[in-house]
Request: fold
Amino acid sequence: MGILCLLKYVVCGQVGMSDSCLESNQELKYLKVHSDNDAAEGKGADTDFEQSISLERNLQKKDKQTTLHKWAFKMLHIIKELAIMLLAVVTYAALTNNSPKISKSPSAFPFFPKDSLVIDYYKGELVSANERAHNADFSFVMFYAPWSAECRKTRDEFEIVAKHFHKHVEMSAVNCWQPGSECRRQYSKVYNWPVLIAYPTVGKGIQYKGPKAAPYMMRFLMQLMQPFVRVTTTEEIVQLMATHDALVLGSVNALPGSRDFAVLYSTILRYASQDVTQNMAFAVLTIPAKDQNGNPYKPSIFLYMWNETLKYPDESPWTPDSILNWITDTFQVNTMWLVPPKIKTNTLSFTLENSPSLFLFTPRNPMKQSNDFYNLLHEVALEYNNCKSPRMEMLKENVAIGRLEDYFSHKLLLQKCAIKKEAQITSAITFLQQPKWLNSTGMKVYMRAEESCSKCDNIKSDLSLLCQIINENSCSRKTNECIEQGNLGEEFVKKYETSMLKDENDPLAPRNLRKFWNREMCRLLRITEKLIPSIYTDYVKNNLTVNNKIDGLLCKTNRTLTFYALDSLETYYFAERLGVNVFDRKDKTAAVIIDDNSETHYVLNEPVNDVTLRDFIVSYADNTLPRSRKSITSIKSNNTHSYQIKTFCDKQKEVCVKELDSDSFLPTIAQRDKAVVVMYHSKQCSFCNGISYIFLIVAKILAPLEIVEFARIDGDINILPWEYTMNSFPTIIYFPDKMKSESRTFPCNVLPVTVPNLLAFLLSNFNPRLKLHTMWILCNQTRFEDERNSCISSVRSENLSLINHTLKEWRKADARQRAELMYRLQQMRNLHLLLAHSPQRTEDIKVYLKRLNSQAFNSKYNSLFDQKEKITKGNANNVCNIE
Amino acid sequence: MNFYGVFKGLYIFIICIGDFVQGTKLFSKNDLIKLREEVRQMFQHAYNSYLKYAYPYDELRPLSCDGIDTWGSYSLTLIDALDTLVIMGNYSEFQRVVNILTTKENFDANINVSVFETNIRIIGGLLSAHLLSNKAGIETEPGWPCNGPLLRLAEDVAKRVIAAFDTKTGMPYGTVNLRHGVPPGETTVTCTAGIGTFILEFGALSRLTGDPIYEEVALNALYALYNHKSAIGLYGNHIDIATGRWIGLDAGIGAGVDSYFEYLVKGAILLQKPELMKIFKEARVAIDKYLKKDDWYLWVSMNKGQITIPVFQSLDAFWPGLLSMIGDTESAMRTLHNYHQVWVQYGFTPEFYNIIQTEAGTNREHYPLRPELIESIMYLYRATGDPYLLQMGVDILRSIQHSAKTPCGYATIKDVRDHRKEDRMESFFLAETTKYLYLLFDPDNFIHNQGQHGTLINTPNGECVINAGGYIFNTEAHPIDPSALHCCYNMPRLKLFNVSELNAKSKLFKGENRKNNVRKKTNGTEEAKSEMKSQHQEKNNQEHLAVGQINLEFVEGFDFVMKNENMEEGIIEVKFVNESNETVVLKEYLKQIFYENKSLNEGIFKSVPEKHNYIVNITGQNDYSLLTCKAQPFLHRLAVLGELFNGKDVY
Reply:
C-alpha cells in the first residue's frame, strides 16, 4: 500500500491541482474496488484511501495560492491519462504484492484490580498523576508497562505495600508504556519495567532499586520517612555502632535554611536510593552555625566502621555526589547482608573468588532493624578478626550486650502489645532520656532501654537477669532511674510542655504523640511478626556459655575468612545448590563455608547457635572439617525441576540403567561381587545425551551377565571423592568386581563411543572367565549362521587358552586353591565339549558358564582374597584421608 | 528544607496488619503446570484457527482470519506443527493429520520454493513426525523406523530439492522448482546458512533410508563453505555458489549465517563426526576474537575483522543455546542476559537492535514471533535448572499473550516499540515458539530424557533401543532421535566383536587407568593458579597451531574414502579416489532419480558441469576428545539467579 500512496502523491503533486487529483482518485477507487476480489483487501485499500484523501486536502490548502491553476487545467487531459495508467500499475502491484494489514497498538486496560488501593493511571495520564503526587506529602509511584511479566509480579507486591501505607503515602501507578500517552511522550526510553519512584514533598524523586518484594519496599519507604537519627552523646554513637555495620555521622548546623544540612539530607536520601539493603546507620550531630568568634563552623562527616573511623576530607566539596562517592568508596564492613540483585551480576563471584567465605542463611525481616542471627555473625566476625585491638574488644562487647538488650526489649514489646487496653500502655510509658526532637525530623525513640523500663514491675526478674549478664553498673542505675521516673511520669511530661501546645486535642502534643507512637510500634510489631517471626539464638534465650577459641583466629592461623549473611527466604536457592534445604533447618538458618581455592564447601550440620557456629569456624581453621558431598541432588526441593529418573522399568519393553548420586555412588562401585560400568554424564554437555543410547544398548546386550552392573552419574552436579571426580564428560569407567583400584577408563579421546568399541573395551578388561561368558552372549545375538559359527569357534579357542592358563595356575597353587581350580577346570571341560559338538544346547552352556563365574563356588577363594583386599582397601582409605 | 513535610513523614509511620507470603517461592511444580497449560492453550488457539480459517494454505493470517500461501503450497503450518502435537501429548490430532498427509503421494508441483526453508520445515517436519509416530500410537509399518509413509514423503521432497546441489562448488542454489529442478536464470547467490543447514535432515535421511547421497551432498556443501572461510577464519553472509566469491562480506552469527554454526555442532553430535566440531571450534576462535564485545556479538568485515554493524539481531539469540550444548554455560548465560535485557526493554526482540544507541534498528522493528530466544532459554534451563530462566520464559509468554494475540491466532509484531500487529503468523510460531515454551515449563517431557532409559523395539535389523533421549532439534525445532538413526544405519552393519581386531588393538581397547582422568585438585596457591593459566595459554597456542595445520585440498571427483587409519596418532589421511564405478556421481544419481520419477523433468540436467569437490584433511579427524565437554568449575553450581562466575578453566 505504501507504493500506492506514494504514486498517488506524486501524481497529485505533479498536477498541483486538487480537482483533477480527486477525480482521478475517484477513478482509482472505482478501479480498485472492482478489481479487488478480496473483500478484506478492498477494505484495507479504502481506509488507505481516506488517508490519502486527507493528505491531498492538506496539499490543496498549501497550493491554493499558487498560480499554476491555468497551466494545470490545460494539462488535465494528459495527466488524467497518465494517472490512469499509473493507477493501473499501482493496482496490479497492490494485487500481487498483498500489502499486510496492520492493527493498532493494544488499547489500554486497567492494570490494577478495581478495588485496589493503588490509583491506576492506566492511560498514562502523567499530568494528573504528577499533580496528585505533588499534593500528597509523600507518594510512591510505579511506572509500568502492561505487558511486562515483572510488572505483574511487582503489582502484587505493590498492592501489599499499599495496603499498609496507603493512608499516608499516596500510592499510584502509571502506565508509562501506552503509545501516545502523556507519560510515554515524556519518558520514551525505559530499559527495565517497572520503575518505582518515591516523591517526597520537596526535592527530586528517589528511585527504588532494591528487591521488588513488599518488605524491602516498605523498608525503603520507612527509611525515606525517617532517614537518620539525631545523636547527642558518645554513648549513642557506640550504641548505633553496635547495632549497625557502619555509621555515617554528619555534624552540621541544622537550623532551618541551612544549606549544609540540605546537602547532607539529600546525600542520605540518595544513598537510600542506591542501596536499601545494607545495615548502615545515619546520624546527625547538630552544631551551631557560628563559633564564639563568629566564624562559621565547617560541616564534617565521619564514617565509623568496625576497624577505623574516617573523616570526610576537608578539601573535598560539600556536595551530595562527592560525599556519596566517598562513602561508597571507603565503606568497609566485616559482615554484611548479601542481597543478590537477581540480574546479571558478579555479586557472589566477587566474594567467593577472593577468599573463603562463610555464608549464613537466615530469614531476614527487612523492616526490622536487628536480627539476632546476623548480630551473632557480626560478633563472631569481630572475634575472628580481633587481633587484640581495644576498639574491636569494645565493639564486640557492645554487640553482645546489644543482642541481649534486643532480645529482652523484644520480649517486653510483645508483652506490652499483647495488652489491648491503651490507657494502661500510656500510663506505663516513661522516658529514660530526654525525648529528643519531638517536633522535628529525626525522631527516633529508643525502644530498647525505655521499653524495658516501661513495665518495670512486671518484668523485674527479666531485667535482673539482663543486668546479671551484662554486669554493668549503668544498668542497675538505669533500672532504678526507670522505676523512679515511672512513678513520676506525669511530672516528667510536664517538663516538655514548653514548646508545644497544651491542648489535649492537639495530635502533635507530646502526650498524644507518644500514645500514637506506641500504637504504631505495636502495629508494626504485629506486622513484622506475622511477616517473618523474629527468631533468637539459643544463646540469648538460655544464656549458654561459649568457648572463646575463636578470638583472634585470623592472626593465629593467617586464614582470611569473610562473613556474609543471606536472607534464606529470598536466596534459599543458593543454599539448595550446596545441598542445604533451609526450610528443613531449625529457624530456616544454616551456615556454609565455601572455599573456591580447594573447590570445597563445608556445611554446619547442627542447628546454628553461638556454640556450634564458633566450633564450626574453629574446626575450619584447624582443617578438621570434612568436605561436604552434598549437592542439589542430595535434597528434595520443591523449586528445582528436572527430568525425573525412571526407577521402575518394564524389562520387556524398556531398558534402563541405574542413576547414581553422591550418596549411592561409593556403595555401588564398592560392591565386592559386582563389576560396575559407570557412565559419567553432564546435563551441560549434549555429547553425553548423544551417545547415551549406546550405553543403553550395551547394557541391554550384557543384561544376562548378572555380575556386571551398568550405572550413570551426573558428574557435574554430584560431588564425589576427588579420586572419582572426572575432568571431562562423557567418561565411561569400568570398576572390576574385586580389584577395585584396577578401574579403567574408556579411551574417549581416540575411540568413538560405539557399540563394538564399548564392547571391546569391556571384553579387554573383563577377567578371562567373564570374558568367556560375554563372548558366548554376543555369539547368541549374531544374526547369521556363519557369523555365529565363527563366533562360537572363537569362544572355544578362548576356552582352551583359559584351560591352559588355569592348568598352569593349578601347578603353582596350594591344595586349597587346587580344589577350587579343579572345579573350574571341570566346568571348562564340559563347556569345551558342548561348544565343539552341540553348540545349540544353549541352556546347558549357560549353566556351565554361570557356574564358572558364580560367586558361591569360590567362597574359599574369597576368604583368601579378603586379606589382599583389606590391604588395598586400607591403602585406599589412607589416600582418602590425605585428600 | 521543609521540615514540616518530613515531619509528616514521621507521623505517617503507620502500618496495618495484612497477609504476607512467607518468602519468595520461585516456581513450584504447580506454577509450572499452570504455565504449561497456558502454553498449550496458546498453541491450541493458533492451531485451531489455522485449521478453521487457513487450511490448506501455508499460513494463517491472524488479522484477516484467512489463509495464504507463502513458502510453497504445501500446507506448511500443518506439517510444521505436527510434532508439536506429539510433544504436547495430543496424539489423536496427530494421527488424524498423519492420515491426511499420507494420502499424499508426493510433493509434485510446479512451484519455486526456497531450498533452505523446504528442507528445515518440510523435510525436518516430516522426519520428526515419522520418528515420533510410534510414540504417538500410530500403527507403524514393519521396518519402522527405517521405513514408513512419512519417511517416503520426506525422501520425495529431498529428491526434488537435491537438484540444487548440482553446482560447480557443491554449494546449493537458494531456490528450486519442485517439478523442474533449478529454474533457469536462477541467481547463484546463496546465504551461508542456505548452504550449511542440511546435514541434520540429510544425514538423518541417509541413515534412515540407507541412501548415502543426501549425507554426502550435505557434508560436501559444508566442506565447500569451510574452504571459503576468510584468512582470519570468518564467514560472510552471502556467497556466489558458481564462483565461490563472497557477496555479503559482513561476518556475524545472525541472519544468513546462524544455522550453519548450529548444524556444525548438532551434526557433530548426531552423526558423531569430530571434524564438524573442529570446524566449529575453529570458527568460534575467530568469532570470539573479532565479533564478541561485552558478551554481544557484532557484525564485522570478514576479511579485516573491523566492526561494520554494531547490532544485535533477533536471530542471534540461538547462540547461547548452542554454547550450552557444548558445556560453555558461562558464556551462554552472559550473552543470554544481554539478549533478555533487550526483551524486557521492548517486550519483544526487534529484528535489529542497535547496541550503541540501545534502540530498535530503523525499519527492523518487527518481531515475527521468533523462537530463538526461548530456544536458548529452554536449553539453558535444561542444563542448569536456574529459575531465572523460567522467569525469562514467563516474560516471553506474557508479552505474546498481551500484545500478539488476536481473535484468530497470534500475529507478528509490526513494531516492538508500540506493539502494532501485522497480518502474519509464520509457521515457526507453532513449530518452535510454542514448542520451546511448552518444553521449558514441562521438565518431565519425554524430550528431556537424558538417556537414562529407552524403549525396546523389534525391527528386521534386530532389537533396537529408541527414544533414549538426546534428541537433536533441527533449526525449525523438529527433534531427531539419534538412536533411531543408529537402529537403521549401524545395526545392520553391527559386528558385535571381532576377535582379531580385539587382540590386535587390545592395548587401545584396554583404556586408560582411571587415575589419569581424575580432575586435578587445585591446591589454591597463586603459583598453582598461574601454572594453570600458563597451561591454558599453552593449550590455546597448541590449538592455534592445530588450526594452522588444517588444510584443504581442492580436488576433482566426487567421493572420498578414508585410508590408513592410524589410531594411535589419530590422523586419517583422506584421499581422493577416482573410482567411478564405486562412487555415485551426483549427476548420474540425479538422472537416475529423475528418470524414475516421472513427475520430475530430467531435461534440465543435460548440462551438468564437471564437479569440483572438497576433501577435508583435518589433523585429528579422529580426535574424539572434540566430542566431550570439560567439567564445570566448582563455583558454577552457584551460577543461578543472574549470578555469574569468571571461572578459572573456561575454554
In short: The longest strand of chain A covers residues 246-252. Confidence is low (pLDDT under 50) at residues 1-65, 419-501, 860-883 of chain A. The longest helix of chain A spans residues 390-418.
